[in-house]
Design brief:
It contains 16 helices and 15 strands. It is α/β, with parallel strands linked by helices and about 425 residues long. α4 (about 65-85) packs parallel to α11.
Length: about 425
C-alpha cells in the first residue's frame, strides 16, 4: 500500500524501492552491521511524527505542541534504561558516530589525548581515524590486536601509562572476541581516564546476556539501534547520572538541532521488542549461527581472523588464497550473498581493496536461518573463493540458485 502511495507521486522512486525489496528478498544478507526491522518499527519510522519539530528535551522543548512527542521520547528513554540497566539515556543522536561525537564534545577538549582501537584492527572511524573528526581534532594513540586476533590488554595498559589519555574508547566495528570491559576500566582508572564503551555492534548481545555488559564499568556507553538491536537507523548514548546534564547539552544544542521523532518512535518500538523473551532467543541464535558459519569456513580450509568468533561476526582472511576482499565481495554478490570487503590486521592491500571480507549473522538470523543453513552458506562462500579470478559465470549462477533456495526457505518479512 505504501509503495502505491509513493508511485502516485514518484514512479521512479517507487520502482527503485520495489527493486530493492526484491534484492533483499532474494539475497543472503551477511553484512554484519545490517538487519531487518520488524514491520512495527518500520511503520513507526514512516509515521506522521516526521512532521513535528521538537528541539530540546522532553517537557523542556523550544516548540509548542510536543505533549505527545514528549511521552513517546520518554518511553524510548525508559526502555533503553531498563534494557541495559543504565542510569541515564539520551535517544536523540541521529547515528552511532554522532553519539560518539557528543561524548567527545563533553568529555574532552580539542588537542586532548584519546586512545581508541585502530580502524585497520577492527575499530571504528569515530574512534580516532585521521580522516574523521575524532582524529582531526584530538591527539590519538591507537591500540590493536595481537597475532591471535585478540586485544593485547598489556599493550593497551602500556600505551595508556605512557600517553595519559583523557578518554579511552573500547568497543569495535569488526572484532570477533569478547571485550573485557572490566580490564579497560582498570586501565582507565590507573591513568585517570574516562571510559567510553561503543557497543554499536554487540548491543543486542549485551542486552540478552550473550556478551558481558560494560555498564558496571564505563562512564559512557554508545550504540546504534540498527545493527543487532534490530531497530531504525540511529544512535543512543547512555551514561552515569553525574554526566547526564553534560551529555544532553552536547547532543543539543552541541551537535544537533531538532531530533528525528519518527525515528525515536521506531527506537522505542525496537527497545520494547528487545525486552521480550523472544529477543533473548534471537540473540542466542545470532551467536550460534555465527559460530557455525566460522566453523564451516575453517573446515573448508579458509582462514578466519582469530580462528573463530565469540559474537555475531568474523573476518575471512583471504591472503593465502591470492584473492582480494574487493574481488570476493563482488563475486559473492553474483552468487546471491551480500557482504563487505574489510581490512585484516597488517593488511598489504589498501582500504579500498583489502585482503578480507567481513561476515555477520544478525540479518539472516532475523530471517530464520539456523545452524544447518549457515553450514550451507559456508559451503557457498568457500566455492566462491575457489572460483576467485577465474570468472566462472556458470558456477556462479549455480551458487546463486543455491542461495536463492535458502532465501525461499524463509519468506521475507514484508
Amino acid at each position: 500500500m505504501e509503495l502505491e502511495v509513493i508511485r502516485q507521486t514518484d514512479s521512479e522512486i517507487a520502482d527503485l524501492i520495489e527493486k530493492e525489496l526484491d534484492r533483499q528478498k532474494n539475497t543472503i544478507e551477511l553484512i554484519a552491521s545490517e538487519n531487518f526491522t520488524s514491520p512495527a518499527v518500520m511503520a513507526a519510522c514512516g509515521s506522521i511524527l516526521t512532521n513535528k519539530y521538537a528541539e530540546g528535551k522532553p517537557y523542556k522543548r523550544f516548540y509548542n505542541g510536543c505533549e505527545n512527542i514528549d511521552k513517546i521520547e520518554e518511553l524510548a528513554i525508559e526502555r533503553a534504561k531498563k534494557l541495559f540497566n543504565a542510569e541515564h539515556a539520551n535517544v536523540q543522536p541521529h547515528s552511532g558516530a554522532q553519539a560518539n561525537m557528543a561524548v567527545f564534545m563533553y568529555a574532552v577538549k580539542p588537542g586532548d589525548m584519546v586512545m581508541g582501537m585502530d580502524l585497520s584492527n577492527g575499530g571504528h572511524l569515530s574512534h580516532g581515524s585521521p580522516v574523521n573528526f575524532s582524529g582531526l581534532y584530538f591527539n590519538i594513540v591507537s591500540y590493536g590486536i595481537n597475532e591471535n586476533g585478540v586485544i593485547d590488554y598489556d599493550k593497551v595498559r602500556e600505551l595508556s601509562l605512557k600517553n595519559k589519555p583523557k578518554l579511552i574508547v573500547c568497543g569495535a566495528s569488526n572484532y570477533s572476541k569478547i571485550i573485557d570491559f572490566k580490564k579497560f576500566k582498570e586501565i582507565a582508572d590507573e591513568t585517570g581516564a574516562l571510559l567510553l564503551a561503543d557497543i554499536a555492534h554487540i548491543a543486542a548481545l549485551v542486552a540478552a546476556g550473550e556478551h558481558p555488559s560494560p555498564f558496571p564499568y564505563a562512564d559512557f556507553v554508545t550504540t546504534t539501534t540498527h545493527k543487532t538491536l534490530r531497530g531504525p537507523r540511529g544512535g543512543i548514548i547512555m551514561c552515569k547520572e553525574k554526566h547526564a546534564a553534560g551529555i544532553d547539552k552536547a547532543v543539543f544544542p552541541g551537535i544537533q538541532g531538532g531530533p528525528l521523532e519518527h525515528i525515536i518512535a521506531g527506537k522505542a518500538v525496537a527497545l520494547k521488542e528487545a525486552l521480550s523473551p523472544e529477543f533473548k532467543k534471537y540473540a542466542h541464535q545470532v551467536v550460534l549461527n555465527a559460530k557455525e558459519l566460522a566453523q564451516a569456513l575453517m573446515e573448508e580450509g579458509l582462514d578466519i581472523v582469530g580462528n573463530g568468533t565469540d559474537n555475531h561476526l568474523m573476518t575471512l582472511d583471504l591472503r593465502k588464497t591470492g584473492n582480494t576482499g574487493k574481488d570476493i565481495a563482488n563475486l559473492l554478490e553474483k552468487a546471491g550473498i551480500t557482504a563487505n570487503k574489510n581490512t585484516v590486521p597488517n593488511d598489504p592491500q589498501s582500504p579500498f581493496i583489502t585482503s578480507g571480507v567481513r561476515l555477520g549473522s544478525p540479518a539472516v538470523t532475523t530471517r530464520g536461518f539456523k545452524e544447518e543453513d549457515m553450514r550451507e552458506v559456508g559451503k557457498i562462500i568457500a566455492e566462491v573463493v575457489k572460483i576467485g579470478n577465474s570468472s566462472n559465470e556458470e558456477k556462479l549462477k549455480e551458487l546463486k540458485a543455491r542461495s536463492l533456495k535458502l532465501c525461499q526457505k524463509y519468506p521475507f518479512l514484508y
